[in-house]
Design brief:
Radius of gyration: 21 Å
Distance between the termini: 40 Å
Strand content: 15-25%
CATH class of the largest domain: Alpha Beta
Helix content: 25-40%
Strand order of the largest sheet: 3-4-5-6-9-10-11-12-13-14
Number of domains: 2
Order of helices and strands: EHHHEEEEEEEHEHEHEHHHEHEHHE
Largest sheet: 10 strands, mixed
Shape: globular
Number of helices: 12
CATH topology of the largest domain: TIM Barrel
CATH architecture of the largest domain: Alpha-Beta Barrel
Number of strands: 14
Structural class: alpha/beta
């Protein structure tokens, strides 16, 4: 663990898959089977406080309460959008802060509740990739989140949803593949059939294009979904939008994604924000279609959401959303190229909770 990952304080019980929790308990002289009881209490019974884990003997509860902690994130503020989106501002033990977003689907069930409830989870405090269209870039990177801090975002957010959260997307603050080990520990807990949190097919990791992480996911045959923030079809434009493209050029990224498909037999979702006059030409459509046909994939077309509240400079300050008419034309042209197109909603835009807007903003409602 590097200094970037270090959190001072009691050892976290959350965030450790069963085997790791058993090893931790054994190293402390606690019987191995107690780890499974604590694990079940946290993720099946959803108990936060060790003292409420009545299955454990009193002496053990006292020991765990003094030497370990079960709370990794603390809800500081909760904002609710007009469309039902909820944005959570979580405070961490070291005083840092992160945001998570709970997004209801537009499809309603007979009881009036949305059929799908997606939690957008953060993986780092800030981000160092410098994508010019993303508000989180204004915060820089402070540190990686621990697996406990990642998992606890879900556990705390679920308390504020009347229905179970059905989907998890690693699309919040930070680059998930730059915090690979902690993210995959959290995934193991989320996808554990015993916890009944979410299925792998309802878990999506979004990367800006960290090639070594994509290759590692391929080699480990990870079964969660992979999404890639593409946003450009030429190397020059992508470098302007996403500095990471200088380290891993577009050709290198596409080769890695093809390798990923060959190893896992799983398709990829390309995320594509449409900027007026930057990446929305007919040539962009044709190039994007060629990318999408290289291996099974989908294209998630996303409207650009303003980040003016972060006072962007340079190229980022020049970016404008495509007009509604041009945005729809871009989608129609892609579909005419036989590309499977999805359209990202702008849920939570009024509370700075839409795609690309997470920057610890506390816009009042």
């Amino acid at each position: 663990m590097s200094k970037r990952d270090t959190v001072v304080g009691p050892i976290e019980l959350k965030g450790l898959p069963t085997l790791e929790l058993e090893k931790l308990f054994e190293s402390s002289g606690i019987k191995r089977y107690r780890a499974r009881q604590v694990y079940d209490a946290m993720y099946i019974s959803r108990i936060d406080n060790v003292q409420e884990m009545k299955l454990l003997p009193h002496a053990l509860r006292e020991t765990l309460d003094s030497a370990y902690r079960t709370e990794s994130v603390h809800l500081k503020t909760l904002q609710v959008s007009d469309d039902g989106t909820k944005k959570f501002l979580f405070e961490l033990l070291d005083g840092s802060a992160i945001e998570s977003v709970l997004i209801p689907s537009e499809m309603a069930e007979e009881d009036g509740h949305p059929r799908r409830r997606t939690l957008c989870i953060s993986t780092q405090v800030g981000c160092n990739l410098g994508c010019v269209f993303c508000a989180t870039a204004s915060l820089n990177l402070k540190r990686n989140l621990t697996s406990g801090e990642i998992v606890d975002q879900y556990l705390q957010a679920q308390k504020h949803s009347l229905k179970p959260i059905t989907n998890i997307v690693f699309m919040g603050m930070g680059e998930p593949l730059n915090n690979y080990d902690a993210v995959m520990r959290a995934v193991e807990i989320f996808n554990d059939q015993r916890t009944l949190i979410v299925a792998p097919r309802r878990t999506t990791l979004s990367t800006a294009g960290v090639v070594p992480g994509i290759v590692r996911m391929a080699d480990e045959k990870r079964i969660i979904k992979l999404a890639v923030s593409l946003h450009a079809t030429t190397q020059g434009v992508r470098e302007k939008l996403m500095p990471i493209a200088r380290r891993w050029p577009l050709d290198t990224l596409m080769d890695a994604l093809e390798y990923y498909y060959q190893k896992t037999h799983k398709g990829v979702t390309f995320e594509y924000i449409v900027f007026e006059g930057v990446n929305d030409s007919s040539d962009d459509v044709k190039r994007l279609a060629r990318f999408a046909r290289r291996f099974p994939s989908k294209v998630n077309v996303i409207p650009f959401h303003s980040i003016d509240f972060t006072h962007p400079e340079g190229f980022g300050a020049q970016l404008k959303p495509s007009t509604p008419k041009h945005f729809q034309q871009f989608i129609d042209r892609l579909r005419a190229e036989d590309v499977h197109v999805l359209i990202r909603s702008s849920s939570g835009k009024d509370i700075d909770a839409a795609c690309g807007q997470l920057a610890l903003s506390d816009k009042a409602k």
